[in-house]
Task: structure prediction
Amino acid sequence: MKTEASTILASSFWFWDKPSWGWAEVWALLAIALVSVALSALIRPPERFFSFALINGTDNRWSTSKASVALWTFALIFAFLAILFHTRGDGLDNLKLSSQYLALIGIPAGAAVGAKAITQNKVDKGQLTKNKQASPPDALEGTAQLFSDDSGNVDLLDAQYFAFSLLLLAYFFAQFLSSESTRLPTLPHTLVGLSGVSAASYIVKKGVKNTP
Result:
């Protein structure tokens, strides 16, 4: 009786009444956008976008490792919400998160924590100087910083690490949006491996690089 009542109540909301995959994806995107806008109002200064604040470092530069974590986090939240809306909650009951996705969340998260720890340790020891920008970058400037080092020079390992993250994300969205399946797509093991290797190289670079 309780289940039937819940189903009837859920069906009374037109956007929850078994929406197609297309509409489920639209509602998932809108939900993320609305929450981001609401959280942006709580950030000081309030004109900063919530998503931009997530990837901004203490030096007011966009962080390559933080951006990778944020992109994969938002991608999986979008997928879960789309499945939730399309199946009215039933699709998440038996959803299994493969080791690939655990790695894709863990690798950039580990890279972000490791990079932060190494950089802060060098700053504390006087081995590295972090010059803070006067204000956070705009979208164009911030995007360029994802492929460059702290001095603003294009960096091979930063670019490689972020490029593999973008490539995997492109594959993920292409498969997920076209399959109309409540299962997350299987990612190419080669690309997942290359993403892990590039993240490791990124961390090693942080460890050996001194003040420019």
